[in-house]
Write a structure and sequence with these properties.
The structure is a single chain. With 340 residues, this protein is an alpha+beta fold. The chain folds into two domains: 2-81, no CATH class; 94-339, Cysteine proteinases (Cathepsin B, Chain A, Alpha-Beta Complex). It is 36% helix and 14% strand. It contains nine helices and nine strands. It has helices at 2-45, 52-75, 92-99, 151-165, 174-179, 192-202, 221-224, 242-249, 263-266, and strands at 80-82, 129-130, 233-236, 254-258, 268-273, 283-293, 297-303, 315-319, 335-339. Strands 1, 2, 3, 4, 5, 6, 7, 8 and 9 form a nine-stranded mixed β-sheet that branches. Helix 4 packs across helix 6 (192-202). The radius of gyration is 25 Å and the shape is globular. The N and C termini lie far apart (101 Å).
Length: 340
Amino acid sequence: MGSSILKQFVCCFLIIIISWEPQALSRMIPDVSMIERHEDWMSRYGRQYKDAAEKERRYNIFKANVKYIDFVNNAGNKPYKLAVNEFADLSNDEFKAAHIGQRNLSKTAKSSTATPLMYENVTSVPPSIDWRKKGAVTPIRDSTCGKSWTIPAVDAVEGLTKIKTGKLYTLSVQEILDCDGGGHNGCEGGFTDDAFQFIKQHGLTTESNYPSKGNVGTCDTKKEDEPVAKISGYENVPVDNENALMQAVANQPVAVIVDASGMDFQFYSSGVFTGDCGTALDHGVTLVGYGTSNGKLKYWLIKNSWGVDWGEDGYMRMQRDIAAKEGLCGIAMEAKYPTI
């Protein structure tokens, strides 16, 4: 009698388990998989959290970001891909505050004297150019301080110096942060014009002579007086003119400011970026070339300063020659190049 009741109980229990298992596993397995992905990501990037509560909060942000990245990639309707990079446990607002800055970098009112484009009479430009292949581009920087107002100017001067002298120097960004006394807030942001003005007045020494410190310090005037690169000034590319911008980039790397605030920009990995973005210019990058992908999709070659793990080894290909006159992400709104 007891044995019969026990068998009936076991049978009922198994029926319940069998009917429950698929639904339960469908909920549990993704969570387990996501936890493993977070743990693997933490190990890869050496991420540690102060306590369990912080880890849970970061995990939830990570999970939301990964779901978004997977959704975009799985849709398969864009010519670019996103990736779970080192910014994956940051909300978009946190990312913008830490790596883009909280002030608009556009400062057209303070721009250099409006003069015609130096290259406006250059009617023949190559269909593509990559200044990396010409040895005029230094390694990708990994900015731990809001230096995007300085780095594009420094990149552009490095490129022009190589083109004019045959010598490629990795120049000091830290010198500008420490020694430029006006018009900026150091790591909290500034204006590319100020960086060019500083270089015009003082020149720049090398990164090895005046290395980065991750924050703003006291100016080392002795090292400031040891420049290896100088410029005579800088000029603006005509606003909202991608053709003029192409003429300039065909001749030298150019500093530009873009709207980099979107999640697709944050997690960009490869391909030609065509994502949604506005024209609230907030991040400085350097144009080091242009070309065409698969014979039809035109792009700008952008050098960024978020390390080599972001994008295509630190670079982005962004769609070029779009219908909007300001260009994608406002890339044609405020472009500048140094002169010697």
